[in-house]
Amino acid sequence: MPLKTALIVGASGLTGNILLKKILDSKVYDKVYVYSRSSLNIIHPALEEKLIDFDALHDAVPAEDVFCCLGTTIKKAGSQEAFKKVDYGYPLKVAQLQSAAGSKNFLAISAIGASSTSSIFYSRVKGAMEEAISALPFQQVYIFRPSFIAGKRKEKRIAEEIALPVLKLINPLFIGPLKKYRSVSAEAIANAMLYYAQHPETGVHVIPSDEILKFS
Q1: pLDDT at 152
Q2: How far apart are CA 147 and CA 208, in angstroms?
Q3: What are the start-end ranges of the E strands in the chain?
Q4: Is 176's pLDDT higher than 70?
Q5: Which of 1, 106, 108, 160 has its CA 20 to 30 A from that of 136?
Q6: Is 112 within 8 Å of 145 (Cβ atoms)?
Q7: What are phi and psi of 110, to 5 degrees?
Q8: What is the pLDDT of residue 168?
Q9: DSSP readout, 31-64?
């Protein structure tokens, strides 16, 4: 089977960094492009790091599979407008450029409850991102909707550090229809993204949090 090419956006984040390492270890791709604002300091023969300013991005790379792990918080972004730029504007811009360049498969991390009609701003932005990307002419679009993402982040998030031990205790209580609210590890999300990239089915597919849990 011929090797493929990939683009990862958001590889400096928790899930994106795990995904990058898994993709490089998989030996499925002979070329892996990464968009980043600063160097990840990873050396690998298949890796080509592109230091970019998303606001000035106008070109695409020759990647069959595009993995979008971009995401922030309103607190970290500084405002709702800045949050929307990162979680809606940048993913859509990359998707538009890559779609026009012939990329076949777009895989993006969204969030549980995403809906363009939600009364919650965060969920509304995520839903709008999903709809905009799903409307582009990719052969396959995979949207991953995890619940709370567990993992050790580079930046300190006090609320998450407090919540994680509690969630670990109550996760088993979420059964049946409530299972989708269990916290899910960043590694499980990365595993799921890599799996669906290698088992593509034409169309738009939403992978809910309880399905992602199966990749833990």
Answers
A1: 64
A2: 8
A3: 4-9, 29-36, 47-51, 65-68, 105-109, 140-145, 149-150, 184-185, 203-208
A4: no
A5: 1
A6: yes
A7: -115, -130
A8: 59
A9: EEEEEESS------TTEEEEE--GGG-------S
What pLDDT is attached to residue 3? 85
What does DSSP assign to residue 105? E
Residue 94 has pLDDT above 90, yes or no: yes
Active site residue 104: no
* Beta bridge pairs of residue 67: 8, 107
CATH superfamily, region 4-154+183-207:
NAD(P)-binding Rossmann-like Domain (3.40.50.720)
Q: Which residue is catalytic, options 22, 31, 122, 179?
A: 122
Please say whether the beta carbons of 68 and 91 come within 8 A: yes
> In this predicted structure, which of 11-25, 33-47, 111-125, 154-168 has the lowest mean pLDDT?
154-168
94 Cβ partners below 8 Å, 6+ apart? 7, 9, 35, 54, 57, 66, 68
| The amino acid at 120 | I
| Global pTM value | 0.88
Q: What is the mean pLDDT of residues 47-67?
A: 96
If DSSP codes are grouped into helix, strand and coil, which group holds residue 125?
helix
Q: What is the pLDDT of residue 118?
A: 97
User: What pLDDT is attached to residue 150?
Assistant: 81
Which is catalytic among the residues 35, 126, 142, 181?
Answer: 126
Residue bearing tokens 């002979």: 30
Residue type, 68: C
